[in-house]
């Protein structure tokens, strides 16, 4: 199954994992300690994040460290940007209309 960044950030647990990893890289157990879900569930979330390119898992000795990679979030930013421009144009037209109505009074 091909996964994308939007699927990855759709889940609140995965967003929380990314937020946690934005401050520091952690071991898999270190990540799991911060959640009330099972260790296997955290591992599944990390697997999805890894498939989407939002985290990398770095083996170091006996441990596996998880580190965030936020470059792929640019896809989300690009998608949102097109709608921001649409709404900005709409608000500008509304401002113009309100200003015109104000002058007519």
Q: What does this molecule look like?
A:
The chain is built from five helices and three strands, in the order ααβααββα. The chain is α+β, with helices and mostly antiparallel strands. The model has no long low-confidence stretch (mean pLDDT 94). It is elongated and about 75 Å long. β2 (55-60) and β3 (63-68) form a beta hairpin. The chain has a three-stranded antiparallel sheet with strand order 1-3-2. Helices cover 62% and strands 13% of the residues. The protein has a single domain, classed as Arc Repressor Mutant, subunit A (Orthogonal Bundle), CATH 1.10.10.10.
Topology:
Layout: H1 5-10, H2 12-21, E1 26-27, H3 28-32, H4 39-51, E2 55-60, E3 63-68, H5 74-104
Antiparallel strand pairs: 1-3, 2-3
Please, how many domains? 1
Q: Report the CATH architecture.
A: Orthogonal Bundle
CATH class: Mainly Alpha
CATH topology: Arc Repressor Mutant, subunit A
CATH superfamily caption: Winged helix-like DNA-binding domain superfamily/Winged helix DNA-binding domain
Average of per-residue pLDDT values:
94
Uncertain segments are: none
